[in-house]
């Protein structure tokens, strides 16, 4: 009882000390998350830039996602640290508008980048031959431009009805949720519609990848005792051995056994390439699935509260600390994205390792 009494008295007489300690701890923790997000995305951008093998339209989209997440970590998260810790806005209306605009635009762009990456992956796996011709750097640039146009269109509307308060001092910097129509428009455009699109695309990508993998395995297990055609990636055709070769007929003067041996090797190499391709499809689909799962985990709580609170207004109440947690959970997605790509993408992992070894050797 005496120990409990001492603790209560300490809390009563030193409230500011405890608050200050918690604020410092929270500031350090959030700063570490911000720094890690900056470094992770910088490494992805630098790796793509310096590795010629990664200069492909698909990786340009990933690089653009990393740039977007880098903008979140540089423009949004540092200011958010001060606002989260103090719960008071001390930077004025102009900086508030800039920060809110950057927050909505960059976070929305990050989410929409996941959609175009999934869309690119869907076209590549379901219409490989035709889409390969259209899969250019220009097309990737167009997709990125569309992402930013949509993101800006979602972030701009709130500022039309905020101009009346432009010269007033403010204690809080939040999006005006009086316009329910905008709340529905912004949350649907930035999260709910992209999430539905991602789920549909991933479902189709998974089904297509599974079908290709099963077909590859069944093809790999066949015995080539009847004549059939195998088409190579370069457009050349390899004919597997025919049962008639075993009868001793030779049309070229070479030994039937030798021809059979060569053709079996050629057919086997084609099938080996198909098996490797199927393994890559499996890894790419798995990576996309992890990206999708992390995205929903990070952003779903924030957007549910963002939609529910303005609608139910006084009937609903969430503790501010929980709202801050949901906000930073969303920001955390900008750190998770580059980590997943470097950890689960073999090409990125190899390029990243080479980059690290090169830096060690040069130093």
Automatic annotation (TrEMBL):
GO terms for biological process: adenylate cyclase-activating adrenergic receptor signaling pathway; chemical synaptic transmission; positive regulation of MAPK cascade; regulation of behavior; regulation of locomotion; smooth muscle contraction; vasoconstriction. Residues 40-341 form the G-protein coupled receptors family 1 profile domain. CDD domains: 7tmA_5-HT1B_1D (cd15333). It is found in: Cell membrane. It is a multi-pass membrane protein. Keywords: Cell membrane, Disulfide bond, G-protein coupled receptor, Glycoprotein, Membrane, Receptor, Transducer, Transmembrane, Transmembrane helix. GO terms for molecular function: G protein-coupled serotonin receptor activity. This is 5-hydroxytryptamine receptor 1D. The lineage of its organism: Eukaryota, Metazoa, Chordata, Craniata, Vertebrata.
